[in-house]
Amino acid sequence: MQFELIDEIIEKISAGDFKQRLKALHDLSYFNSEKAFSAVIKSLSDPEAKVRALAVNSLHKYYSQYQRTITTELLKLLSDPDGETASNAACALGEAADPKTVESLLKYLRGNDERLKLYAIIACKKISDENITEALIQIINESSETGDKKTLAAAITALGNNISPAHLPLIIKRGLEDPDARVKASAIEILSNLKIEKNVIIELIRPMLSENNARVVANACAALHKAGDDTVFDDINRLLKNENKWVRASGCYILGAINNESAFKLLLKYRDDSEPEVRINAARAIFNYKTEKAVKALIEMAADKDKSVKGEACQLILKLRESCAFWPVIELLKSGDKTLTLMAASVLCNIGDDAAIPVLKDACAGFAEGPFKKELNKYLRILNEIHDKKKATVHAVATYRETAETRRDAAPGEEGLAIPLELLLKPGEEKNFAHIVVEKLFHKSQFLREEAAFELSYINSKKAVFALSRGLHDPVTKVRAACARSISRHCMKYPELLPEIKNALIELLYDESSEAAQNAAMALGLIRDKDTIPSLLEILNHENPNTRLYAAMALGRMADKSVSQPLIQLLSKEENKKVRAAVITALGYIGDAEFYGIIVEHGFEDKDPHVRASAVEALARLKIAPEKISGLIKKALGDINNRVIANACLALWKIGDLSAMTYVTRLVKNPDKWYRASASYVLGQIANVEAANILLSLKNDTDADVRLNVAKSLGNIKTPKAITALIEMLDDEDEVVKNTAYDAIIKCDDKFAFWPMAQYLKSEYEILRFMAAVVLCNIGDLACVPMILEALAKERNAEVKTEIMKYLTLLVHNQPAAALKEVFDEKYNNQKACEEGLKLIENIDVSKEIKIQLYQAASKSQFKKVAEAAAAKLETLK
Description:
Strands 1-2 form a two-stranded antiparallel ribbon. The protein contains 53 helices and two strands. It has 878 residues and is an all-alpha fold.
C-alpha cells in the first residue's frame, strides 16, 4: 500500500501540468524515504521555477541522511536564473552548514559574479571557518567603499556566527555608522551575539532607538532585550502605540523575537489592529512561539476579514509540524469547513502522530463521496503509511511474559517506549481500565502519554505511582512535566517507591523545560523528605540560574530552618533577579523571625520589582509581631511598581490590618490596567465575600489583562457565585481569558461547587455538561455518581460521553462498592443509569472478588434487564 501511494504521487510529479507537479511535490514532503528523496532531487531540475523552489524547501528533513548529495545540488542552484530558487538554495546551504562546501563558497565569494556572490554570502550564515570569516570581512570593507548596501548588509549578517570582540570596531564603523537602514539593522542584529559585557552592547545600541527607521528601531529593541535591558519594554510599547502602521508592524516583529509570555500576551492584541499589514506581522510573530496557545491564535486569524491576512495565517498554519499544534489542529479538523478541514489534515500529516488516525477517519466518514472526500482520504492514507513506516515490531503480551527472564527490567511497549516488567499483566490477570491508562503512558504518541500522565493522578495504586515514576524519564518534556505534577498526589502512600521518585525529581530540576523543573520542585516540597536536602543544597551552586531557582523553591517549600544559611549565602552573591526573588520567597516559607533583617536588606532595596514584591510577601509570612512589620509594609505601598503595591496590600490583610481593603479599592479604581489586574490578583488571595463581590464587578473590565486575572482569582474563590461568573466568562471575546476561565472551572475541587455543578449536568450545552462531570469527579463526593450516570444515559454526544465515562471510572475505581451502592439499590428507579453502571463495572480496576460483589448487588436491581445482565456476568466470573 505504501509503495502504491508514493508511486501515484511520483507519477504526478512527472505530469505535464506544473500545478499538478507542484501539488504532488507538496504531498511527497510528508514522506521520509529513499524513493521520496530521489523524486525530490529529480524535481530540482524541473523546468518550472516554482517546482524547483519548493523542491529545495522539501530537502530539510533529509540533511542528516544525504547531506553531501544535497549540498552538491544546492551549490549548483545558487546559479539558478530564478531568484526564489537561488535564494532558497542559499538559505538551505546556510542551514545545512556543511564544511565541505567551504571551498566552493570561497570561490564564489572571491569571484566577480555579484549575484552569485550575494547568494554565497547568505549560504555562509552558519558556517564556522576562518577563511570564510576573512572573505566576509573583505567583502564588508569593499562593499562599504563601493556603496553596495545590499551586499554589505548581507555580509554583516553572515558574519554573525563567527563574530568576535576583535570585530567590534569593524561593525561600528562599517555597520552602525553607515547611513543605510538595512546595514544598520544588520549590524545591530549581530552585535547581540558578541560575547562582551552586556552594558557595552546596551550603550552601543540604545542610541539606535532614536533612528527614523522602524526596522532599525525594531532590531535595537530585540538586541537590548537579549542583552538584558529590562527598560526596553517601554520603548516597545511606544512602537506599538505609534500611528504609523509600519512602526506598529515592527513592534509585532520584536514581540515575536522576544518570545516570552509577556510579549505573547501583548502580541495577541494586535491580531485586531485596524491595519492588515500590522495583523500580518502579528501572525508571523505568533507563529514563532510554537505553543498550543499560539497555534490557537493563528487558527483564529485564518478567519480574518482581510484576504491577505487570512492567506498569510493559512500559509503559516500549513507550515506547522511541531507537537504543540496537535490538539488545536484536531479541533480545526472538526470545524465542518472544508478548506479548514483539509488544512488540518495536512498539518496532522506534517506532525505524523498516529493518534490522529482515528479522528481523521471519523472526519472522512462525515462527508459524502466526491472530490473533497477523496482529497481528505488521501491525507488519511498518507498518515496511515507514515504510521506503518515508523511502526516498531509489536510483541504480544504473551511474548513479553515468555521472554521476561531474558530481559533486565523492561519490555518493548506497544509501538512506543519500554514498559517496565512490573507493569505487565500477570498470567490470568484481566486487562482493565487502569491497565489501559498505564499502557498508554508508554505509547509511541506523546499526546496519549501526556493524557495518561494526567489520568494516572486519579488512580491511587502502587502500579499507577510506579508508572508515573518511570514517566519522569520520558523523552518529551511535556510528559515529564505532567508526571511530576501528578506523582505528588499519591506517592506518599507508597514509601517503598519514594527513593526512586526523589532521585528522579532531583534530576528533573536540571531539566531544560521550566514547567518540568518547576513541577519537580513543587513535588519535592510536598514530599518534604530531609534526605533530599544535601542534593538540593549542592544544586544551589549550579551554573544554570533556572536550576538554582527551582532548587531554592523546593528547599523553601520544605520549611526546614537547617537550609537557611546556604540560602542566605546564595542571596548575598546572586546576580540573577529571578533566583534572588525565589530565595527570599523560600526564606518566607521557612518563616523564622531572624530573617527579618536579611529580607529587608536584600529585598526591599533591590532594584528589581519582582524581588521587592517577593520581599513584601516573605515578610508577611515570618513568625513575627504584626506591629513590627506593618510600618515597613505600608511604606511599600508607595512603590512605583503595581506588583509591589499589590503584595503590600495582601501582606497587610494577612497580618490583620483592616486598612488593607482601602488600599485594594484604590488599586481597583486606578486608570492603569496593570494596577487593576494586580488588584484582581490580591482579591483572589483574600477570597472573602467582599473580595468576591469586587471581583464580580471587574469581570467585565474593558481590558483583557484585568479580566484574565479576574478569571484566575475567581478560580481561587470557588463559591457558587464565582463558578457562575466563570461560566459567564466562557463567552469572553478574548481567547486567553476564555481559556483561563475554562481551566479555572476544570481544576475546581471545592465542595462548595458540588450543587452548582450538579445542576450544570442538565445544561443544554455539551461543554458545560462535560465540565460539570469533571468538577464533580475532582470534588470526589460519591454522591455525584448516580447523578453522572443519569447524565450519561441522556448524553447524545459520543465524544462527551466517552470523556465523562473516563473521569467517572477514575473516581469510582478507589471505592467501587460505596460508589455504586445507591445505583443498584432495589429502590433506585432509573433503569438507563443502572445500565450505565454495569458498563462502569467493566472499566474499573478491581479484583475479581470485588467485581463479583458488584454484580451480585446489580443482580438484585428491580429492573429485569439489569438484573439478568448482572447475573450473566456473574456466571462468567465463576
